[in-house]
Amino acid sequence: STRLYLSGERADQVAGLCAGTALDAAVLGDDPTAASAMKMVFAAWTKGSAALLLALRETARNYGVDEALVAQWSDSLPELPARSEQARASAAAKGWRWTGEMTEIAATFAAAGQPDGFHRAAAAVFADYPRPETG
Fold first, then answer.
1. Which residues contact 56 (CB under 8 A, 6 or more apart)?
2. Residue 77: what pLDDT?
3. How many CB atoms sit inside 10 A of residue 95's CB?
């Protein structure tokens, strides 16, 4: 199913319209900004951690230690080799779309008094993935 976060004074009403469908509506309360904030912090982790993995692998390749890094991950964090490959495949397919989203996440962090540099850097990582040709 797909989860839709809702917030604001009519969130419960909208959630009721989704009852019994494939859309899982989760109400976060009356604050009209809560659903947007939830989307930002969730994507900050999912896509932000993917950007970190991509940057790590590219840096390791640049220094000739990519195989050693993957071997270390296999020993100590066995989920990371596959996760880094999944991040590469996802970024190749749609990473170009995430550049703007990372910039918005950076602004969300800054507005909350948190450092925004990581997600600005993530935007730069995803900017290296070209938009696919359409035609």
1. 69, 84
2. 97
3. 25
